[in-house]
């Protein structure tokens, strides 16, 4: 058995940091050889929200007088939890002067939060009054209050909707004049769950949210013979069990041996792909991956 060491020196310089190529000093002939991942050290640094994935935008409305304007929130590429997305919502609301302050506390038109008991993402939209509440202040550039009290309408378009677990045609109710009456027996696909005395409408995601669409990393290697896998090049699946930005250290307790196709090689090519089959864009190239290659007789006897 011998070990192949892959690190950032083996990364293909295409900006993705998810393809590593090991070139043998000389061409080698493999017959009845098997390969397995034996060690992985890398950082959890692939983004869940990307402009290239078209999952970085959603909208909300603000009404000033009788004029309703739709605003788009465009989240910068990054690795976000729901709390981070909600922080960015508040940042955008401050930039747009869509908030008011009472006793030093900012009130925003809506929020996203995790509801762990329901395994869901909860959207709360708040009733925006027609005049400044008692004791409140507003920022410079405040666009004005609506002529009729109402809630912002939040819409989750295609792709971002999967992050939060809502249907792609979801749009929250404006609750004009705080008169919204939810339908009875709306069914399991209806997101509305509650309305309180202040006019706050709460919604829950109706499918499992995919906050990190690529929660597993598929290790794909060239020239293997795995007829039971689709795609046939997958030899390992890595599921990070660390926090964002932390180091992943994995030593599989049992090696999953995959047969290399007999032939002559001058290189091995390892690609790290997401669950959608596309190569990941990994931000931190600092990684070390060890592969072991051994004879069939050694595999059978181990």
Shape: elongated
What class, by secondary structure content?
mainly beta
Number of strands: 22
The arrangement of helices and strands along the chain is EEEEEHEEEEEEEEHEEEEEEEEEH
Mean pLDDT: 92
Give the percentage of residues in beta strands. Answer: 35-45%
Overall structural domain count: 2
Characterization of this structure:
With 302 residues, the chain is mostly beta strands. The protein contains three helices and 22 strands. Strands 1, 3, 17, 19, 20 and 22 form a six-stranded antiparallel sheet that branches. The longest helix has 14 residues.
Gist of the model:
8% of the residues lie in helices and 39% in strands. The protein is built from 3 helices and 22 strands.
Layout of helices and strands:
Layout lengths: L1 E6 L11 E12 L2 E11 L13 E8 L2 E8 L7 H14 L4 E3 L2 E3 L2 E6 L4 E6 L1 E2 L7 E2 L12 E2 L2 E2 L4 H5 L27 E4 L5 E4 L12 E5 L2 E2 L8 E5 L8 E4 L7 E3 L2 E11 L14 E8 H6 L1
Antiparallel strand pairs: 1-22, 2-21, 3-19, 3-20, 3-22, 4-5, 4-13, 6-7, 6-11, 8-9, 9-15, 10-12, 14-15, 16-18, 16-21, 17-20
């Amino acid at each position: 058995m011998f070990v192949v060491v892959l690190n950032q020196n083996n990364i293909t310089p295409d900006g993705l940091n998810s393809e590593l190529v090991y070139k043998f000093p000389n061409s080698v002939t493999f017959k009845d050889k098997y390969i397995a991942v034996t060690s992985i050290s890398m950082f959890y640094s692939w983004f869940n929200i990307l402009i290239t994935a078209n999952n970085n935008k959603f909208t909300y409305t603000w009404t000033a007088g009788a004029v309703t304007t739709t605003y788009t929130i465009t989240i910068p590429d990054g690795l976000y939890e729901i709390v981070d997305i909600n922080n960015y919502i508040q940042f955008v609301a401050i930039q747009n002067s869509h908030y008011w302050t009472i006793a030093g506390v900012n009130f925003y038109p809506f929020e996203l939060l995790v509801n762990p008991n329901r395994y869901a993402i909860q959207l709360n939209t708040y009733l925006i009054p027609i005049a400044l509440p008692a004791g409140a202040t507003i920022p410079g550039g405040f666009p004005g209050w609506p002529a009729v009290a109402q809630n912002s309408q939040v819409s989750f378009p295609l792709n971002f909707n999967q992050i939060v677990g809502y249907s792609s045609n979801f749009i929250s109710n404006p609750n004009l004049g705080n008169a919204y009456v939810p339908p009875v027996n709306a069914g399991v696909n209806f997101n509305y769950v509650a309305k309180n005395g202040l006019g706050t409408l709460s919604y829950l995601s109706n499918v499992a949210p995919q906050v990190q669409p690529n929660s597993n990393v598929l290790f794909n290697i060239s020239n293997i013979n795995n007829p039971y896998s689709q795609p046939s090049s997958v030899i390992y699946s890595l599921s990070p069990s660390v926090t964002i930005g932390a180091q992943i250290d994995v030593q599989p307790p049992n090696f999953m041996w995959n047969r290399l196709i007999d032939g002559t090689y001058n290189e091995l090519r390892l690609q790290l792909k997401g669950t959608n089959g596309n190569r990941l864009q990994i931000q931190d190239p600092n990684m070390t991956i060890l592969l072991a290659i051994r004879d069939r007789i050694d595999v059978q006897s181990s």
